[in-house]
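Researcher: I'd like a candidate sequence for this fold, 210 residues long. If you have to choose between options at a position, lean toward the conservative one.
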């Protein structure tokens, strides 16, 4: 998702400036600024979002600690009922709950009641870095093409390269998710083309006015 955003937003930005008859220096400045601003925006947004999730998880764990301290019997029954609801026989569910709570009561409730595990635990810094890196990787594609393409061919070359990459990402996402590859490819290419066309159109209009 981050790479897709990086490609589309940076390509659209470059095309908008190019349509307004910007110089190569202007295109590169716009592209680099878009890459940095987009990567930082993705990182900041992801950090805040995931940190909020981490705060919620910590609040839930604090509440669970208090409940384990003040109502141990009730917590045993609650955990056993979870296992019954998942298909275990009541007597077996009670035995499993007792053994798991004897080993790690908070861990058992965190995993089976709250859905919190070490693997899925919210990690704000890692999420921010991953989002920024994926955006920057995507944005590098149109930016690189802008730097090497003849100025008069920047618009078609950046547009075509970006569309090919967007289509490839759409196909990969569809295949990974088990959806129809053709539909994912067409959807990514269509909306990418629309976004770039609108931005280029606005750039051309503003270029005439200014």
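Model: Candidate sequence:
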């Amino acid at each position: 998702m981050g790479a897709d955003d990086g490609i589309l937003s940076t390509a659209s930005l470059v095309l908008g400036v190019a349509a307004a008859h910007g110089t190569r220096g202007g295109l590169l400045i716009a592209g680099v600024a878009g890459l940095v601003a987009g990567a930082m925006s993705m990182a900041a947004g992801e950090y805040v979002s995931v940190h909020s999730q981490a705060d919620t998880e910590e609040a839930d764990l604090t509440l669970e600690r208090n409940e384990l301290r003040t109502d141990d019997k009730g917590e045993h029954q609650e955990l056993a009922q979870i296992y019954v609801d998942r298909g275990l026989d009541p007597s077996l569910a009670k035995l499993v709950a007792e053994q798991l709570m004897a080993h790690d009561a908070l861990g058992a409730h965190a995993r089976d009641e709250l859905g919190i595990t070490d693997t899925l635990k919210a990690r704000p810094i890692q999420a921010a870095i991953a989002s920024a890196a994926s955006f920057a990787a995507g944005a590098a594609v149109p930016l690189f093409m802008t730097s090497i393409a003849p100025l008069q061919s920047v618009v078609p070359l950046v547009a075509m390269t970006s569309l090919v990459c967007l289509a490839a990402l759409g196909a990969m996402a569809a295949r990974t998710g088990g959806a129809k590859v053709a539909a994912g490819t067409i959807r990514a290419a269509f909306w990418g083309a629309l976004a770039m066309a609108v931005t280029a159109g606005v750039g051309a209009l503003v270029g005439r006015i200014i």
